[in-house]
Design a protein that fits this description.
single chain; 20% strand; Enolase-like, domain 1; five-stranded antiparallel beta sheet; alpha+beta; 161 residues
């Protein structure tokens, strides 16, 4: 009997059908998040709302995208890191994905963050809280975060700026 198309492969590897499905689901999720994102203006005090797609790996986003920040006239810095750089991702064997953050160069505040990684839905809440408190990105870059957790990846991500 053939394995179900949506079924998980063995722990150490994924079949080509599953990899293709994950790729297309990720593309669909990214397009959905981008099309439903509501750009916040600097005059708008509304707190950033996060969006999560529970895919393998999870996809989570809060705030502005890189394009939205540029269109709104922000001078930005962009940090990117592969999920494989996060120690917890390696210990779990969940190294697929990417972490990306957009920061305002003038204020040091986080304008947006997108995470495509294991436990992205949990990690994005930490970023959202820093954004709501209007703290600079250095809080996450320099903070002492529990090791080994996926949230620790924020130290790594923001050290790229």
């Amino acid at each position: 009997m053939k394995r179900a198309f949506l079924g998980r492969g063995s722990r150490g590897s994924r079949g080509s059908e599953e990899k293709t499905l994950v790729f297309f689901m990720t593309v669909i999720a990214l397009n959905t998040l981008i099309s439903f994102s509501s750009p916040a203006s600097p005059a708008s005090p509304a707190p950033p709302a996060h969006k999560i797609a529970l895919l393998p790996p999870e996809l989570a986003h809060v705030g502005l995208t890189e394009t939205e920040a540029q269109q709104q006239g922000y001078a930005i810095r962009v940090a990117k890191v592969d999920a494989s750089a996060v120690p917890r991702a390696r210990t779990l064997g969940q190294t697929d994905g990417l972490l990306k953050a957009i920061v305002d160069t003038e204020t040091g505040r986080i304008l947006g963050c997108s995470l495509l990684c294991h436990e992205a839905g949990e990690v994005i809440s930490t970023v959202q809280m820093v954004m709501q408190a209007q703290m600079p990105y250095t809080v996450l870059r320099d903070g002492i975060l529990t090791h080994p957790t996926m949230t620790e990846g924020l130290n790594i991500l923001f050290s790229k700026l």
